[in-house]
Amino acid sequence: MTDTDIKKGLAGVVVDYTAVSKVNPETNSLLYRGYPVQELAANCSFEQVAYLLWYGELPTDAELAEFERVERGQRALGDNVKAVIDLIPTTAHPMDVIRTAVSAIGASDPDADLATVASSLNKAARLYAQLPAIVAYDQRRRRGEDLVPPRKDLGYSENFLWMTFEEVPDQVVVDAFTVSMILYAEHSFNASTFTARVITSTLSDLYSAVVGGIGALKGPLHGGANEAVMHAFDEIGTADRAEAWLDDALANKRKIMGFGHRVYKNGDSRVPTMKAALDTLAEHYNRPDMLELYETLEQAMGSRKNIKPNLDYPSGPAYNLMGFDTLTFTPLFVASRIVGWTAHIMEQAASNALIRPLSAYNGPDERHLPG
Ligand SMILES: CC(=O)SCCNC(=O)CCNC(=O)[C@H](O)C(C)(C)COP(=O)(O)OP(=O)(O)OC[C@H]1O[C@@H](n2cnc3c(N)ncnc32)[C@H](O)[C@@H]1OP(=O)(O)O
Ligand SMILES: O=C([O-])CC(=O)C(=O)O
């Protein structure tokens, strides 16, 4: 075994097939079940995309109506889940709250260990329906606000925003939110999805795999970057300070959050769509200063390092403009990625092989206890 045999971070290693999505850095494209994500973002609801990712085809009108009926019927936060959340101090990171809430849902499911396709689809649908209530309630309780019950007359995005802010914002805001949910839903074997697949590969249950995925997503090298982008914007303040801030950060060997990607080396296929949504929001809220800072930092990062933004870069400021607290950004990613994770969990279960790579030992040579 030589150093070149070791693929640190599994970089460049193809570990399995997937039919869920195709990330193609050569053409800078992303397909969900064959459809370009940009087409889906421009034409579909989040409900349609969730159905597509789970079932492999877009729903007919009748299938969509039934799918929406089931989702709307399961939106309300269960009393037991609310009680668990209320036990967690508001000083905890919201990702820890989401992780615990999902664990509580799993622990109260008598069929948690049942892994038939129908049972897994039901569990996935329940988590997808419940996560907005969990995310919205956690943000509200941190602000000292009461829980807002869901409304069955609203679509997924409108209801999510309603439960968070107790009002449905203008359509441009709802549309930008839907675009973000669609773009975040799925991205092949990223770290959190792979984590979920590893857990599934041991024949563990779907909830355990999702909880593991949430843990992996929390880190700032993955989903936690959308939150970290906003912290950086807060640190920088105004566009005129961006270049000096960046030079200082790079001199101190800091990673610039929201830039770079393991697979895309020429830009993230989702960024132009999310940037267009951010542009709309900046106009709607009359915040040209946010765009100026965004573009100045992007250009400076391009000229210093030739590293391009990833999806977390436009999403962070977009969620800020929508009114979400910075700590809620990564939980929003969870609410969307639950769809991708569970699609992969089901795919892994249907064609399973225990995931267990090898390691090269570089510890002490064999030795023995004295005597
Ligand atoms: C939705 C998502 O999860 S997208 C990813 C979100 N994560 C972030 O935005 C965090 C910031 N970005 C990063 O840390 C990285 O780009 C990653 C983790 C996303 C990808 O990392 P890798 O594929 O392992 O690339 P790696 O870290 O080896 O980067 C290659 C070089 O570019 C540099 N680089 C890459 N990204 C950045 C960055 N954001 N800031 C500064 N330098 C960077 C690295 O330091 C490295 O330089 P070196 O060769 O001089 O050591
Ligand atoms: O693919 C990755 O490594 C990270 C990413 O962009 C995602 O999960 O959306």
TrEMBL record:
What keywords were assigned to this record? Answer: Transferase, Tricarboxylic acid cycle
Recorded superkingdom: Bacteria
Pathway membership, UniProt: Carbohydrate metabolism; tricarboxylic acid cycle; isocitrate from oxaloacetate: step 1/2
Q: What terms describe the molecular function in GO for this protein?
A: citrate synthase activity
Its catalytic activity?
oxaloacetate + acetyl-CoA + H2O = citrate + CoA + H(+)
- What SUPFAM superfamilies does this protein map onto? Citrate synthase
Keyword Chloroplast part of the UniProt annotation:
no
Q: Mention any one GO cellular component term assigned to this protein in its UniProt record.
A: cytosol
GO biological process terms, alphabetically, are:
carbohydrate metabolic process; tricarboxylic acid cycle
Q: Does the keyword Transferase apply?
A: yes
What are the catalytic residues?
261, 312
Q: Which family does it belong to?
A: Belongs to the citrate synthase family.
Please identify the protein, giving its name as recorded: Citrate synthase
The source organism is Mycetocola miduiensis
